[in-house]
Design brief:
36% of the residues lie in helices and 20% in strands. The protein is of the alpha/beta class and 368 residues long.
């Protein structure tokens, strides 16, 4: 089966390069190219692609507006291309809020030089989104968006259109003692993290450690956005931060987040390189989870969310013997069932939960 792709960009050069790279994969075929958002809307309805790649800045209609219109009329998995600037990061987060499922930095140098690593990454991301469309309708992959106006008192009021996912529910709260909550995510993670974090009350008495695969500029913007939406404090982790309860620390993109000290007095250590050759991601869920285990022992609830690959599996493998509780997001509510599947298949997770249920289970297991 060959998945159909619609490529949208106002640059003729970029459209042609992306189309050529995608067509090199025997599992993909580009069925159309659009040079602005309005053309994208019209061609999405006509061609019914399995995936759309979308630029952010375009004439006639920008990518964010096009994403909103497409998701309302012809729901389709959308991969955004965005610049690595602060404005590009903000625009990408707006696109994810509008319904896009994933993003890639727009690096003209990689495209011009036809770097194989960049080509393979693009092909993998597009196929991963295409497989999700084949698994279930893309409109069912996302919970209702959370906005500032939807926050009332100490909880989030979800819209009536928010899907309800079934999950394998864990037993009632175990009564286990905890010292920290750790969450790892990749593709689809920004929306998933927003869904969970906005439901934690200001009185949440534990520190939260977040590892989301993102470039550096993006984690800065994402942390600021989450801090504005959430009742708990959310910040991009900085070297030397003294860990406090009720605060979520987001690992900075392009670096590794580790912790030192004890569960009573813990500080964050941010490093550029750990010297380990087997670490692919920066930040790495594996590295952060393992570091947390050395400080907090088994007093951790670790949750692995949607994402490509298996980052998090080895980190959970180091946490499990210490007595940590590990949960994985279920397949139906994931954008890409890679990281959670790796954890579940290894027998490390005690429950597979739908995205819409995770926050309530956290609050039951780690009461405020």
């Amino acid at each position: 089966m060959r998945y159909k792709v619609l490529v949208v960009d106002d640059s003729t050069f970029f459209r042609k390069r992306v189309s050529d790279f995608l067509n090199q994969d025997p599992g993909l075929t580009v069925v159309g190219e659009a040079k602005n958002g309005q053309e994208a809307i019209d061609m999405a309805a006509k061609l019914q692609p399995d995936v759309i790649t979308m630029d952010v800045e375009m004439p006639v209609m920008d990518g964010i507006s096009a994403v909103k219109r497409i998701m309302a009329s012809t729901p389709t998995p959308i991969l955004m291309f965005s610049s690595l600037t602060h404005d590009g990061a903000q625009a990408t987060l707006d696109a994810l809020d509008a319904g896009a499922l994933d993003f890639l930095p727009k690096k003209f140098e990689d495209i011009a030089r036809e770097r194989q690593e960049a080509i393979s990454l693009l092909q993998q991301r597009v196929k991963a989104l295409a497989r999700r469309r084949a698994f279930t309708r893309p409109s069912l992959l996302r919970p209702a968006p959370v906005t500032r106006s939807s926050l009332r008192d100490t909880r989030v009021q979800e819209t009536k259109s928010a899907p309800v996912f079934e999950s394998v529910r864990p037993p009632k709260a175990t009564g286990k003692r905890y010292a920290a909550l750790a969450i790892g995510a990749s593709t689809g993670g920004p929306v998933a993290l927003q869904t969970i974090l906005t439901k934690l009350p200001a009185s949440f008495p534990y520190p939260v450690f977040l590892v989301q695969h993102m470039p550096g500029t993006f984690t800065t913007a994402f942390a600021a956005r989450m801090n504005n939406l959430c009742q708990i404090k959310v910040k991009e982790a900085e070297n030397g931060d003294l860990v406090e309860p009720g605060c979520a620390y987001l690992a900075p993109g392009g670096k590794q987040m580790l912790v030192d000290g004890s569960s009573r007095s813990c500080r964050i250590r941010i490093v550029d390189d750990t010297g380990l050759d087997n670490i692919t991601y920066k930040p790495s869920v594996d590295l952060s989870f393992a570091s947390l285990g050395r400080v907090y022992g088994g007093d951790i609830l670790a949750v692995v969310l949607t994402g490509m690959g298996a980052d998090g599996r080895e980190g959970c493998r180091s946490l499990k013997p210490r007595g940590a509780t590990i949960w994985a997001q279920d397949e139906k509510s994931c954008v890409v069932y890679g990281m959670p599947q790796a954890v579940a298949a290894a027998g490390l997770s005690s429950a597979s939960l739908a995205l819409g249920d995770i926050a309530s289970h956290i609050l039951a297991e780690m009461p405020a």
